[in-house]
Design brief:
Blueprint lengths: L6 E5 L3 H12 L12 E3 L10 E5 L13 E4 L5 H4 L8 E8 L5 E6 L5 E6 L2
Parallel strand pairs: 1-3, 4-7
Antiparallel strand pairs: 2-3, 5-6, 6-7
Length: 122
């Protein structure tokens, strides 16, 4: 097994607001291949071993600040996406913090009330 994590899903109370938040913060375009679902895919090449995930608004998916914590790829330097969090409607709850030889992390709350984190090596 190459990775312990294979897929993640982030719940949304307001799909369009959440989609806009993640597209802005990560400077990406989420894919919406399912016309009858409020579900968007984060870009990932799973054939190349990248970890994929989705954003979903559906019954049974409740945003939360407790439970499992998803660490999103902060790119070369997580300072860049972290600087976009509050302007996009989220809240930084832990600034960029050193993990020593394991890089850096930061935590934030998205527009939906989910506690999420970034990781980067710089």
């Amino acid at each position: 097994m190459a990775h312990a994590i294979n897929w993640f899903e982030i719940p949304a109370a307001n799909f369009e607001r959440a989609k806009s938040f993640y597209e802005t913060v990560l400077d990406i375009k989420l894919l919406t291949p399912f016309p009858h679902m409020k579900y968007a895919l984060f870009p990932a090449d799973m054939q190349q071993g990248e970890i994929g995930g989705g954003l979903v608004e559906e019954k049974g998916y409740e945003p939360s600040q407790s439970g499992a914590l998803i660490y999103l790829n902060g790119g070369d330097d997580l300072t860049i996406p972290l600087s976009r969090v509050e302007a996009a409607g989220g809240k930084v709850i832990m600034p960029k913090t050193s993990l020593g030889g394991n890089g850096f992390m930061a935590r934030f709350v998205d527009t939906e009330g989910n506690r999420v984190a970034f990781h980067s090596m710089k």
